[in-house]
Specification:
mainly alpha; flat
């Protein structure tokens, strides 16, 4: 292991890892729940009915993706309480951390679809709306997945020195 790699990190205990996972879920969940509330209310707005059916379908798909994200974000608590009550295990941490990470993919899809719907409602410009939705998706996937995986690979290469 290189000198630089060992200086800037330290191992967490299982208890610290689980506390961090819980903290991450608590940080993300309120935002997702607020998004779900706004998505649900939107269908009762008169302008929603004025949108083309494909835009309404995109909004419904986004709503479904947010439900999946909420389920994944809340899954660690259910897993801990039902599968491993009063325990903190490596398996529980692995399952919980993956669930939170996996929740980001449907969340990115939902946000991107809703960006498309909002842009379409404002501009009625299909190419612009699609570009905005695709751009949002690429940004989120890059920041939430590609960059962290790249950083992990770089870190593993440093450790291998």
């Amino acid at each position: 292991m290189s000198e630089h790699a060992s200086e800037d990190c330290e191992k967490e205990t299982l208890k610290e890892q689980m506390a961090r996972i819980v903290e991450e879920a608590r940080m993300v969940l309120p935002g997702i729940q607020a998004l779900f509330g706004f998505q649900t209310i939107a269908v009762f707005n008169q302008r929603f009915n004025d949108l083309p059916m494909y835009a309404q379908d995109c909004h419904v798909a986004a709503l479904a993706l947010v439900v999946i994200a909420i389920a994944l974000i809340m899954m660690p608590a259910a897993y801990h309480r039902l599968a491993e009550p009063q325990l903190i295990s490596r398996r529980g941490i692995k399952v919980s951390a993956r669930a939170i990470c996996y929740a980001l993919a449907p969340l990115a899809g939902a946000l991107s679809l809703d960006i498309f719907v909002v842009l379409h409602a404002v501009t009625s410009d299909l190419p612009l709306s699609a570009s905005g939705g695709i751009g949002a998706f690429l940004l989120l996937i890059t920041l939430w997945f590609a960059y962290p995986y790249h950083a992990r690979r770089r870190r593993n290469a440093e450790i291998g020195d």
